[in-house]
Design brief:
about 190 residues; mainly alpha; 7 helices
Length: about 190
């Protein structure tokens, strides 16, 4: 083989190595991003479970003061149950809806609490309310982190040639954890 044949063969080999390296780099990057989304979702899931675990204690405390408010307690129990089922199925839309239902039920519970001044001063209730507020804040941060990681993954998957590699490897875009429209409305304040 003459010198130009070796040069052409070398250039072709170099191109193949460069393309293969780019494929491997993109593949690995997508895998890391996908794992990051999974990790962020686990944090959302963790905070949802934490909130779910705190609610029975809060309800039990309020029940001692407002035993006749059974409808609110039933709503909370049903919403918790739906959220737990949705989390077990890992169904994003059902989780979002169940989370919204639970938040609405908790809002009604807090309205009940307003009618009982002694309850609002109860040390156990105050501690539970603080824990729940802290959990809600952690949940908000976890949802933001999850949505940020989903945005990065989805943006990367939509670019060329990454979209081809993502399709070949089965990595799909993810859904954002959105706030339902009902929760976006400003609460009505009455004095």
């Amino acid at each position: 083989m003459n010198k130009t044949g070796w040069i052409i063969l070398g250039v072709i080999a170099l191109l193949v190595v460069m393309i293969f390296s780019a494929f491997i780099g993109t593949y690995n990057s997508l895998q890391l991003m996908d794992e990051n989304v999974n990790s962020k979702w686990a944090q959302v899931d963790n905070q949802l479970k934490r909130r779910n675990d705190l609610i029975p204690n809060l309800v039990a405390t309020v029940k001692g003061y407002a035993a006749h408010e059974k409808a609110v307690f039933t709503e909370i129990a049903d919403a918790r149950s739906k959220l737990g089922g949705a989390m077990n199925k890992n169904d994003m839309k059902a989780i979002q809806q169940s989370n919204s239902d639970l938040s609405n039920a908790l809002s009604r519970l807090l309205m009940v609490v307003e009618r009982y001044p002694d309850l609002k001063a109860d040390k156990q209730f105050i501690n539970l309310q603080d824990e729940l507020a802290g959990t809600e804040n952690r949940l908000s941060v976890a949802r933001k982190d999850y949505n940020d990681s989903v945005q990065q993954l989805n943006a990367r998957i939509r670019t060329f040639p990454t979209s081809i590699i993502a399709a070949m490897t089965g990595i799909k875009s993810r859904e954002y954890f959105n706030t339902p429209e009902a929760e976006k409305k400003a609460p009505e304040v009455k004095f």
